[in-house]
Amino acid sequence: MLKDLKERVLEANLELERKKLVIYTWGNVSGIDRESGLVVIKPSGVSYQELTTEKMVVVDLEGNIVEGELNPSSDTATHLELYRNFSGIGTVVHTHSTAAVSWAQAGMGIPCSGTTHADHFHGEVPCTRMMTREEVEGDYERNTGTLIVECFRNRDYNYTPGVLVAGHGPFTWGKDPAEAVYNSVVLEEVARMALYTVQLSGGMKYLPEYILDKHFYRKHGENAYYGQK
Questions:
Q1: pLDDT per residue over 128-179, tens digit each?
Q2: Is 226 a catalytic residue?
Q3: 83 is annotated as an active-site residue
Q4: Structural domains of the chain, ranges and CATH numbers in brackets
Q5: What sign does the CA torsion over 169, 192, 186, 52 have?
Q6: Is residue 171 helix, strand or coil?
Q7: Where are the alpha helices (DSSP H) in 19-87?
Q8: Distance between CA 42 and CA 52 in Å, rounded?
Q9: Do the Cβ atoms of 14 and 49 come closer than 8 Å?
């Protein structure tokens, strides 16, 4: 079942480790087949060295296991909440990469300080509010997804394909596993650049909006002209 998607989700999980965004079992990638409404996700607590396509778990959008002998990631309910609300995405990635987590632990969004950031994210990468006790003691993982959705009520999830969950860490997404992992790598790099910028300048620095828009829209949208056609 979903052999091709399992292979691509497996490769995306392994790429997280190769790019040094995860250690041990600190992260997960999932992918959705929109036609069937089924999701392939990394099994919980299994090291990257032990992952195979056979160990990938298939669940439906309610979290019921459809195929697989292992428990799915403990973050499955968060991924499913994003799939239910962000209809244009095909993959969700979660890591605990150092620089991005540092911003999340500070409860701060990553400011767009320069054109490297602007090439990939249209403005600040937001940080959610802190979860309430009731949210944590209730359906914690699903509520984490709800918190992310809340953060994007007035944002375009396609133009800002990533978020920081306060006190927790980053989630990114994309149309497929390769794109979503790419967004995770870029998010970590711009988080590191912003951290250095704040340290050097002694405060938050923001790129003027007209430069932000120029760099973002030359790579994204119907009038983009970056790269080859």
A1: 999 999 999 999 999 999 999 999 999 999 999 999 999 999 999 999 999 9
A2: yes
A3: no
A4: 3-217 (3.40.225.10)
A5: negative
A6: strand
A7: 76-85
A8: 10
A9: no
Residue 125 to residue 163: CA distance in whole angstroms: 6
Cα distance between residue 177 and residue 155, in whole Å: 22
At residue 229, the pLDDT reads: 73
Phi-psi region of 153 (alpha: psi -120 to 50; beta: other; left: phi over 0): alpha
* Helices 76-85 & 140-151 angle (0-180, nearest 10): 40
Catalytic one of 140, 196, 206, 226:
226
Confidence (pTM): 0.95
Low-confidence ranges of the chain (pLDDT < 70): none
> Using an 8 Å Cβ cutoff, are 191 and 130 in contact?
no
* pLDDT value of residue 221: 87
Which among 33, 83, 119, 156 is annotated as catalytic? Answer: 119
